[in-house]
UniProtKB/TrEMBL annotation:
Residues 54-63 have a biased composition (Basic and acidic residues). Residues 30-53 have a biased composition (Low complexity). InterPro entries: DUF3829 (IPR024291). This is YiiG family protein. The lineage of its organism: Bacteria, Pseudomonadati, Pseudomonadota, Gammaproteobacteria, Enterobacterales.
Length: 350
């Protein structure tokens, strides 16, 4: 169970990385106005012009609301989900079996980490944006069950934290600890279900919006630096999804990795062109490219390790317990590189 929980936390890291562009500082920006746009004649029919203007305004308003929703939904997810799973991870470390809970015979008792995230604020914000029109499905329907189940499990976790912090188990032979564990497992079952549904909804919407953004950039700018930067992020996310599969098609995934390498080379070419024009220079672009190449190497190493069925060494097995991101060819190391790449992608701005 301990291993499964760790994998879930890494899944959260994937989501954190997967939301690049969702703050919509990138997606909501309007296209640059061309020099010929101001010379466009005003339509003779003022009502037509008015209708067009209203339609554009309505479209902008709708996009603004969608962006607001996604900002709230993702911010709360990032604040809550991994924190809860890490708390559960801390609880599982001293239990022989998480499902069964404490027996009273444990050699060491470490309790469970307290959660201080502002769930009430998230509940208020998520309730507010979920009611806004237009509807954004499937996430609007997934949002409130998620935050409600989060509140339920956090309430139980914090009661458990106090119980173990005060060492009350020494006075009641773990009686309340066992009672709280039953409540915990019920809350955890509900939380995990809603968390999985909510996470999938964020991914679905985010993937759709990023694909639309990529097309928009290509239509406005051609295959520019921004185009290749975002394309690299989208391709990398597909690679992440492939390499965490139980049955990896190494040949197909290696082709994706090679395609990523070609995109990075195209990006480097665009960066070289930008050096000749200060207006096109991107802050942190070189660091992003370095991070992308590091991710590329780690992704290749992961695919090769699975393809060649390379076993873990004794030293690597030890590292896997506490620092799997340090082991070459692990999914955790790929994700660590990916998250670094996301950091620098966001730092570049647009």
């Amino acid at each position: 169970m301990k291993r499964d929980l760790l994998s879930t936390v890494i899944g959260c890291a994937l989501l954190l990385a997967g939301v690049v562009g969702c703050d919509d500082n990138k997606t909501a920006e309007s296209a640059p106005v061309s020099s010929t746009a101001s010379a466009t004649p005003v339509p003779a029919n003022p009502s037509t012009s008015s209708n067009v203007s209203k339609n554009e305004e309505k479209s902008t308003d709708s996009e603004s609301i969608v962006s607001e929703k996604m900002h709230v939904y993702i911010e709360c997810y990032n604040d809550i989900d991994e924190t809860i799973y890490r708390s559960i991870q801390s609880y599982s470390t001293w239990l022989a079996d998480l499902k069964k809970g404490p027996t009273g015979k444990e050699e060491y008792v470490y309790g469970i980490s307290k959660i201080t995230a502002d769930l009430d604020k998230c509940h208020a914000n998520m309730s507010e944006v979920a009611a806004l029109k237009p509807e954004l499905e499937p996430i609007d329907k997934a949002a409130l069950p998620y935050i409600n189940s989060s509140i339920d499990i956090v309430n139980v976790i914090n009661k458990m934290n106090k119980y173990y912090e005060q060492q009350d188990y020494k006075d009641d032979a773990f009686a309340k600890g066992k009672e709280l564990h039953t409540q915990f497992m019920q809350a955890f079952s509900a939380f995990k279900s809603t968390s999985d549904t909510y996470s999938e909804a964020i991914h679905e919407i985010n993937d759709r919006r990023q694909a639309q953004l990529l097309k928009k950039i290509e239509a406005q700018e051609g295959k520019s630096f921004d185009y290749y930067a975002l394309s690299i992020m989208l391709t990398s996310k597909k690679i992440n999804q492939a390499i965490q599969s139980d049955k990896l098609d190494t040949d197909a995934t290696m082709k994706q990795v090679q395609d990523l390498g070609e995109q990075i080379e195209q990006l480097k070419s665009k960066q070289g062109e930008a050096k000749n024009d200060s207006r096109d220079r991107k802050p942190q672009a070189s660091t992003f490219i370095d991070a992308a190449e590091k991710y590329l190497l780690d992704a290749k190493t992961r695919v090769r390790r699975i393809r060649d069925n390379t076993p873990l060494t004794t030293g690597e097995k030890m590292l896997m317990e506490n620092a799997p991101q340090m082991v070459d060819g692990t999914f955790e190391k790929v994700m660590d590189s990916y998250n670094q790449m996301v950091t620098w992608f966001n730092a570049m701005g647009r």
